[in-house]
Amino acid sequence: MAVTVYTYGKLQQSLWEAKINFTSDTIKVMALSAYTVGTTQDTAQYLSDVLAAATEATGTGTSGYTAGGATLASKTLVYTAANSWATQRANSTAYTVGDVVRPTTGNGYVYQAIVAGTSAGSAPTWPTVIGQTVTDGGVTWACVGRGVLMLDAADPAWTTGNPGSLTASYLVFYKSTGTDSTSPVILYWDLGGAQVASNGGAFTPQLDAGEGLLTMFTG
Question: Comparing C-alpha atoms, which of 2, 64, 1, 7 is closest to residue 213?
């Protein structure tokens, strides 16, 4: 399953308006069976904006799914300065888009892969201006910041009964206020097509082991 992550453009507005406190608020993930994305990535601020263009999953039989989705548990919010970032760039290593590394010898910046590929046999000359890029074998790195703010949580899961099934093509993460029109959205996952769990199987979205739910960079 190829997952593509999209952050809602108005997330920054919600943060500056103090509408989301990740660690103390109820953060949920909702499964969608259909979603006409259109311009919602740039215009949606609340769950009601998303649901105007989407259909929440319901499943069949004992799907294990509850309307509104699952509440994220064990939420953490951690800032790491660039030179303390654990993942160092390595020679002749395959990287995917979104991977974040620092040079072996820290230079005060972190870099994110914007073109996937295998790194060269020696390190590139790292740029130290945010936004600049460098080619490293088949990988292209962008200088993205002097530190990383990482949001993470335990993987949510829905376990189906037998008989029962759950099908979803998208997942949307949001702060739940109990009212769709005041529940700010954070990001959504495109699962690359319909994903199905059935007859006792678990539908378990896995957050990235190294980068959590969302990474944000400081300049």
Answer: 7
Condensed to tens digits (0 to 9), the pLDDT of residues 114-144 reads 999 999 999 999 999 999 999 999 999 999 9
For the chain, the DSSP string reads ---EEEE-TTHHHHHHTT---TTTS-EEEEEEEEE--TTHHHH--BHHHHHTTEEE---EES----TT-EEP-S-EEEEEEGGG-S-B--TT-EE-TT-EEB-SS--S-EEEEEE-EE--SS------STT-EEEETTEEEEEEESEEEEEE-PPP-EE--SSEEEEEEEEEEEE--SSGGG-BEEEEEEEEEEEEEETT-EE-PPPBTTTBSEEEEE-
Q: Is 27 exposed, middle or buried (0-12, 13-18, 19+ CB in 10 A)?
A: buried
Write phi, then psi, for 45 (nearest 5 degrees).
Answer: -115, -30
pLDDT of residue 28: 98
